[in-house]
Amino acid sequence: MEDGGEADVYHKSHGDKGMPCVTATHFAGGAMLGVLARLAAALGASIVPQNGGALIFHEEERRHLPVELQEDAVVIAPTADALQAAFNAR
Question: Which pTM does this prediction carry?
Fold first, then answer.
């Protein structure tokens, strides 16, 4: 990234009919958060931090989450600033 940021990104599907998953690790704030937010929004995906509830970009996405994640999910804008604020609030 232009600010020197980077991340390790992995993709895996869990079984033939399992949930596809993209995992990003080893990243800091900055421009990389914008990339992650835009990627998740483009995929119609949620962001599930290790320490907190799911982050979604539209209320109607809540119904696609596993039941145990639905109640605590938070709707945010798909921007670096909104993602950083959500991480900081945890």
Answer: 0.79
Query: Residue 20, class by beta-carbon neighbours within 10 Å (0-12 exposed, 13-18 middle, 19+ buried)?
Result: exposed
Tokens of 48: 């599930």
57-68: pLDDT as tens digits? 999 999 999 899
Amino acid at 21: C
Is residue 30 within 8 Å of residue 3, measured between CB atoms? yes
Q: What is the DSSP letter of 11?
A: E
Are the C-beta atoms of 34 and 40 separated by less than 8 Å? no
Based on C-alpha coordinates, what's the Rg of the chain? 13
- Structure tokens given for 42: 């483009």
